[in-house]
Amino acid sequence: MYLKSLEIQGFKSFANKIDFKFHNGITGIVGPNGSGKSNVGDAVRWVLGEQSARQLRGSNMQDVIFSGTENRKPLGFASVSITLDNADHKLPVDYEEVTVSRRVYRSGESEYRLNGTSCRLKDIQEIFYDTGIGKEGYSIIGQGQIEKILSGRPEDRRELFDEAAGIVKFKRRKAAAVKK
Ligand code: ATP
Ligand code: MG
Known about the structure:
Layout: E1 2-9, E2 18-21, H1 37-47, E3 77-85, E4 97-105, E5 110-114, E6 117-119, H2 121-128, H3 145-151, H4 154-165, H5 168-179
Antiparallel strand pairs: 1-2, 1-3, 3-4, 4-5, 5-6
Family: Belongs to the SMC family.
Subunit structure: Homodimer.
Organism: Hominisplanchenecus faecis
């Protein structure tokens, strides 16, 4: 499984639609300060279901929508789609390719799609449990996160091991069953 492409429109500094194509291997994103490198990482977290504005370096969820510049008006929505190659079926779905999309409007209205079909955040989260990719996963290591892991609470550190060991989905299912 690998990241194939990332399409961003109206998200943070990306007013125009931009389609990043990745290949199986290493990609580096370089650019001057403030040019939007970290915003690319934020777009990945966001499309995978990040619910915390603070994690995305904003104060509320609408902050991810392009807020305009001196010569460009703000936009009304932000949209991000991520496409992963799933030929090895590491993600537990029949598709060879998985595209997850998220869109939010200024009104607060928002939607998620899985291969073009409207779905719930929960459906997206379930696909990524135990893959290390979800928003709780360790595939995105943000600035300061290593420090947090090393000095964090043992319970929080344990979550990382649960994800790596592939038992998160069982824990979630157990918790849901106990609640019923
Ligand atoms: P550095 O090298 O300093 O880490 P960077 O390339 O990672 O920089 P980012 O933090 O990704 O840069 O981008 C910051 C830029 O994104 C700022 O110029 C900021 O104004 C812009 N930005 C953030 N949110 C929005 C938004 N909602 N609308 C328009 N621009 C935004
Ligand atoms: Mg940065």
